[in-house]
Amino acid sequence: MKKVTQVLIQMGPGGVGKTTVSAAFGFYWASLGKKVLVMTIDPSKRLAQALGIEGKKGAVKVDYKGGLKGELYAMVLDHEEIFDSFVKQAAQKNPVAEKLFENKLYQALKTRLQGSQDFTALIELYHMTLKAEYDIIILDTPPAEHAWQFLDAPLRLVNLFQDKIAKWFRWMGGESTSFFSQVLNVGTKQVFKVMELLTGAEFIQQIAQFFKAVHFFQDQLRDQIQKSHDLLKSSQTEFTLVTTQDELKIQESLGYAKEMNEKGYHLKRVILNRAWPEESITDLSLEAFSSDQKKQIQNLLSLLSENHKTSANLMKRWPKDVKVLKVYDTLKSSHDLERLKEMSDDMMKAFR
Amino acid sequence: MGYYENHSQKANKLTRQIKGPLKEIHFVTGKGGVGKSTYAVMLASQFAKQNKKTLLVEIGERSFYSSLFGKPIQYKPTSIVDNLEVAHWSATECLKSYVLSLVKVRAIYNLFFENPVSKSLIQVAPGLSELAIIGQITASPRQHGPHGDHEILVVDAYATGHFLNLVQSTKAMADTVPIGPMHEQSKKMDEVLRDFDMCHCHIVTIAEDLVLTESLELFKALEKEFKWKPDFILNRYLETTLESKDLNHQSEFLLQALQNKLLQQELAIKTLSGKAQNIKTLPLIKKLHTFEDMEALL
Prior knowledge:
Largest interface: A-B, 67 and 67 residues
Number of strands of chain A: 8
Distance between the termini of chain B: 35 Å
Strand content of chain B: 15-25%
Helix content of chain A: 55-70%
Number of helices of chain B: 13
Strand content of chain A: 5-15%
Mean pLDDT of chain B: 86
Radius of gyration of chain B: 21 Å
Shape of chain A: elongated
Oligomer: heterodimer
Helix content of chain B: 40-55%
Order of helices and strands of chain B: HEHEHEEHHHHHEHHEHEHEH
Largest sheet of chain A: 8 strands, mixed
Strand order of the largest sheet of chain A: 3-4-2-5-1-6-7-8
Mean pLDDT of chain A: 83
Structural class of chain A: alpha/beta
Distance between the termini of chain A: 31 Å
Low-confidence stretches of chain A: 175-181
Largest sheet of chain B: 8 strands, mixed
Number of helices of chain A: 15
Strand order of the largest sheet of chain B: 3-4-2-5-1-6-7-8
């Protein structure tokens, strides 16, 4: 019997340590005996080295000396390759579609267009769940100005190709420049003139060629994106929000939680990274320190606690059925896999 | 030494070619949530106090300064104090004002922006929005497109990776489109960016290892690509004579957490000292919500 892979999507504002938390969450499930794949977008060099995925293609088994009950795999998503292989498969050796590879706009688009990373992450996630090789797949979403982009961008990309505008550009690619005078009314001619003044005829030719090639697989594109979106809303998939105790980050995350709820995504938990301890300063015994040290410690701790107070209040505002896991990410261990283990232990405690 | 002399000669030559009132462009970047916008305000207000006509600009789709200054901040600069104006440049607004300056006739301009074909062109063309913003920033030295008469431009720019894309977009566009007006202008923008007498970069960071690593990677990339030597600003700095080792062997959770903070801070100072010529620290304070709070930090 085939496994049903559980999908855990990690979302959250930028700069909260989403990738590290995703890896630690993978470590957590693997130490409970699951076969886990962590799909990351852009790991830091150190984390990639620690996981053993630096410069490697596909899923790599993480070698943890302390031993794991289950198995932990990690991979870095290679956007260009995923995009190319999708196009290659969809083009089905059609020469017009294959021309796309030579198109300069395509070369720039596949890595740099807003949403193209979100698109490839989603496509790859969908294919990996179809293979059903893992119990759990954890997806670390791409960094974006707004985390919601991960859910919106792929559909926007598809809409662009559905647009009747694409049709216009395709006509142009097929005709000579005399097309302007034949088909277009005066107003539209003006628009094209401005466009040409702005960008040059060469650029417009590239766009036309691009849309002409894309036409061959836009149905498949739409179909795959639709299926991936169905997967995101299915009972197979759970969402995690990762945040830090920073006031602005929590506010941003609370906004995402509300949006997820409204749009029907299953938000299951919040992981609070780099949490600040809840203990009160007044209970602290500081007898071992000199009076100067004592004063400095008290000042620093009251400053830090003050900074965390507003956010601690905000933390009470999550929807009722959302579980909050606190992770303390300290520098106690210098080895990065040990750090993941410590974070995973924090999660263990919180789950209990 | 020869290395530096050669480059400064080249830069001086470029400066002589550059016209217009604008003398310096300061980009402020850093990972999201580290205090980029705050530092950009401080920097801009410092220039204004030196009687230099300064424009503080936030880029992208959303405005943070509108809520900070308590008035709508838009494409057209708003005056805040003597010599200091603030503007919000979104890609669409920059493109609109540029197109208007090209076609001159508002009816054609309206037609262009309301036309679904151009709307989709703006969406699909990768790098076009970045180009529109860099185009606006470098309009004065290129003497092309609408621009003001400021001497100093302080740009509250995108976060690290996104920022690198922004400043590299001009070269990418010049390479993608080998001829035509877009190629010419992209090339000129790139020349302005590579003039390191004109362009300066400030990386705001905090003492957390992931943020720090990313800041260092950005520093290296900018140094390699543009020969810039960015400053580092270490924000939320704990001012103390305590050292992490003073808190060794403590069992209290709070003391361990404090020790962890101090340790990260010591590591940050050590790592940054090896890299940048200029490191500033900004202390962690209780509240930082208004323009006055930020000025007080100076």
